[in-house]
Amino acid sequence: MSEDSKERREAGAGLMEYSPENLVPFGPVHPSLKEPEYFKLILEGEKIVEVYPRIGYVHRGIERAAQDRTWVKNIYLFERICGICSFAHSLAYTEGTESLTEFQIPLRAKYLRLIIAELERIHSHLLWLGLVGYWTGFDTLFMWIWKDREHILDLLEAITGNRVHKSFSTLGGVRKDLTPGLAEKLKHETRFITERARYYEELLHTEETLISRTRGVGNLTKQVAERLCPVGPLLRCSGIARDVRKEDPYAAYEYVQPDVKTSNAGDVESLLSIRLAEVVDSCRMIDEALERLPEGQIRIPFPRIIPRGDAYFHVEAPRGELFYFIRSLGMAKPERVKIRTPTLANLLTAAEMLKGRPLADVPVVLTGIDPCFGCMDRITVIDVDKSKEWSVSGEELRIYGIEYYKRKVGRC
Fold first, then answer.
1. CA-to-CA distance for 191 and 206, rounded, in angstroms?
2. Prior bond to 233 cis, omega within 30?
3. Segment 224-266, tens digit of pLDDT
4. 140-161 pLDDT tens trace
5. Residue 218 near residue 244, CB atoms below 8 Å
6. Sequence-separated (6 or more) residues with CB below 8 Å from residue 24
7. What angle do CA 317, 322, 324 make, to 5 degrees?
8. What's the half-sphere exposure (Cβ side, CA atoms, 13 Å) at 265?
9. How far is CA 362 from the centre of its chain?
10. Distance from C-alpha of 370 to C-alpha of 347, rounded to nearest angstrom
11. Can you state the angle between helices 107-135 and 394-409, rounded to 10 degrees?
12. Distance from first CA to last CA of the chain, Å, rounded?
């Protein structure tokens, strides 16, 4: 390969090979990939010295599409940004839009919003914890946790009518109330999930597979966190106690406050521990919200025309701070909606956490930030010592990581 050709490939983040002249593309954008994303890792031997993420493969034009839809129709558009934290998106949008008016949302609706938000946090954290088990080669943990997660998805379906896109929050309140018997069922399931989370917490600190793959892996210092500004559990694992629910309460978080969990370890093990603690705390908050749930209506009539103005609103989604900017010109449709998701804020921090780690740690560290894309499906590896470049799939990298640690700790 000529030097000029090599430089052009470097400038194109490895994508120049997919030129129109010899095009048969397979990723990073491909129907068989879960979510497209691309990382270029620079190695010295086994050690990672630099990481270049390349984003933008799933740009769907949602913000532009919102300008052609009414205020109500946009609720269902925005919750389709993510299938895991769909309620967080609809909640940020509806509360941001409501802040442009003088209407007061019923208190019962605020409590119901909190309950769904915390149920979504539990199912998101359990989904991620199961995936960590999968990436570390502990598949039994993956199956245990995802089985437990089904209890939460069943509850979400019983309350909202849907397991993924809840369509629960609407302008002026919520669409549905709790049916008779659901409160008791909620309390029963939160007790079950609390017991399971405490069991997994004990397992985290005693099971050798988890300890060898997570303790001291992907260290994040407080200084790096202050420089790169991650959000959510990733920020809190560096010892910084920040949580939108506590600092700028929305829904009913003014009345039922979270106990913000932090750690100074800054590694993947501390991320696991914090998320398990947040699962237990979310169960506590749901129980408390049910005890305090006021009587009354769940929704008020809301105008189709929103007054002129700008609104900035943020919520604590399961992955961290989710930010919405909304502009109205006093019409039936928004003039502009701008969204910043937690993964964008956490991406540079993940790249920093990978530096100095062996290649085998890539799946665990990148999964550690709970990314919202299929980041591990395809990577290009460059060994600067041997002047070699090659590509591996996500599955190949997962198996490589498991085998690497088997050799390292001398066990199967």
1. 23
2. no
3. 999 999 999 999 999 999 999 999 999 999 999 999 989 988 8
4. 999 999 999 999 999 999 999 9
5. no
6. none
7. 140
8. 16
9. 18
10. 10
11. 60
12. 41
How far apart (Å, rounded) are the C-alpha atoms in residues 50 and 47? 9
Q: Give the residue from 141, 10, 198, 162 showing the smallest Cα distance to 86.
A: 162
Torsion of CA 54, 60, 374, 365, to 10 degrees: 60
Q: Tell me how far apart the alpha carbons of residues 368 and 345 are, in angstroms, rounded to a whole number.
A: 14
Residue 358 gets which letter from DSSP? Answer: B
Q: Give the C-alpha distances (Å, rounded to integers) separating 24 from 92, 162, 201, 210.
A: 40, 38, 46, 39
The CA angle 152-157-160, to the nearest 5 degrees, is 115
If we measure between CA atoms, which residue out of 192, 269, 261, 205 comes closest to residue 233? 261
E-state strands within 219-328: 309-317, 320-328
Structure tokens that stand for 126 in this block: 């359990």
Check pLDDT > 70 for residue 394.
no
| Closest by CA position to 200, among listed 103, 267, 278 | 278
Strands 378-383 and 38-44 turn out to be parallel
- Taking the C-alpha atoms of residue 186 and residue 119, their distance in angstroms, rounded to an integer, is 10
Per DSSP, the three-state class of 102 is coil
**pTM for the predicted model, two decimal places:** 0.83
Of 365, 368, 395, nearest in space to 379 by CA: 395
Q: pLDDT at position 12, please?
A: 46
CA 23/CA 244 separation, integer angstroms:
46
Peptide bond into 25 cis (omega under 30): no
CA distances for 237 relative to 138, 242, 359, 368, 394, angstroms: 23, 10, 23, 11, 26
The length of the chain, given as a count of residues: 412
Instruction: Specify the 3-state DSSP secondary structure of 216.
Output: coil
Q: What is the pLDDT of residue 22?
A: 34
Residue 372, phi then psi, degrees to nearest 5: -105, 50
